Amino acid sequence: MTIKKNQFPKGWDEGRVRKVINHYEKQTEEEAFFEDEAAWKKRTETFIEVPIRLLPQIRKLLAKTAL
């Protein structure tokens, strides 16, 4: 049996992942609400609703784009 090494996106490592997890685990409901509200007000990003079945293809397209 071989152990597969975790693979992170470019610029990410285990420390960064743990930091993000810690942020959301310690976040209060009120903090989460205000964070969500702020995201909706950003003019550099948008939210769209798409059928779940299309997510794999969308993720592949996004992965090809340098963010």
Structure characterization notes:
- By secondary structure, this protein is mainly α.
- The chain has one domain.
- 54% of the residues lie in helices and 0% in strands.
- It has 3 helices and no strands.
- The termini are far apart.
- The model has no long low-confidence stretch (mean pLDDT 87).
Keyword list:
67 residues; mainly alpha
Concise summary:
This protein is mainly alpha-helical.
**What share of residues are in beta strands?**
under 5%
Rg (C-alpha, Å): 16 Å
What's the number of extended β-strand segments? 0
Total of domains: 1
Biggest pleated sheet: none
Could you say which structural class the secondary elements and strand pairing correspond to?
mainly alpha
What level of helicity do the residues show?
A: 40-55%
Distance between the termini: 36 Å
What is the N-to-C succession of helices and strands? HHH
**Overall pLDDT metric:** 87
Helix segment tally: 3
Low-confidence stretches: none
Shape: extended
